[in-house]
Design brief:
By secondary structure, this protein is α+β, with helices and mostly antiparallel strands. It contains three helices and four strands; from the N terminus they run H-E-H-E-E-E-H. The chain has one domain (about 1-30, about 40-75, about 105-140). A two-stranded antiparallel sheet has the order 1-2. It has a two-stranded antiparallel sheet with strand order 3-4. The two termini are about 20 Å apart.
């Protein structure tokens, strides 16, 4: 069941990451937020739920990993400055005619989305393999 729990925690974490990426893409041109100023890109910080388990120590336990999986520790805002674009007719333009757009790079977000999708798919495959192994183990007893 450890393998299923680890895969489930990874699926939850990757779903959070994909939701943040979707939010970043949806707000790529949002120049005004309730907090004031342009939207700020958000990113998830992952951490192991069991920090004391390094790869060698997990192998030493011979199948009793004790690993708990992964979790989203925090959601951070990108601190890079907004992208300034000259649009003097825009309602959010400053005195010089520049508009502060979010620090969201659409190409980078799409690459991150592909990476998150692949990680999600890998964890689904791992969960299915774990389930298959458990079913085969039950068939042995028949």
């Amino acid at each position: 069941m450890d393998a299923m729990m680890i895969s489930a925690s990874a699926l939850t974490a990757e779903r959070t990451r994909m939701n943040l990426i979707a939010s970043n893409l949806a707000n790529a041109n949002s120049t005004r937020t309730p907090e004031g100023g342009p939207y700020k890109r958000k990113d998830a910080v992952f951490a192991s739920m069991s920090m004391e388990n390094s790869f060698p120590s997990v192998l030493d336990k011979r199948g009793q990993s004790g690993a708990k999986g992964v979790e989203v520790m925090e959601i951070t805002e990108d601190r890079s400055p907004p992208r300034l674009q000259y649009e003097p007719g825009h309602p959010d333009a400053n005195a010089q005619g520049y508009v502060a757009f979010p620090n969201v790079n659409v190409v980078e977000e799409m690459a991150d989305m592909i990476s998150a999708t692949r990680a999600y798919e890998a964890n689904v495959t791992a969960a299915k393999a774990s389930m298959s192994i458990q079913m085969k183990a039950l068939e042995i007893g028949r």
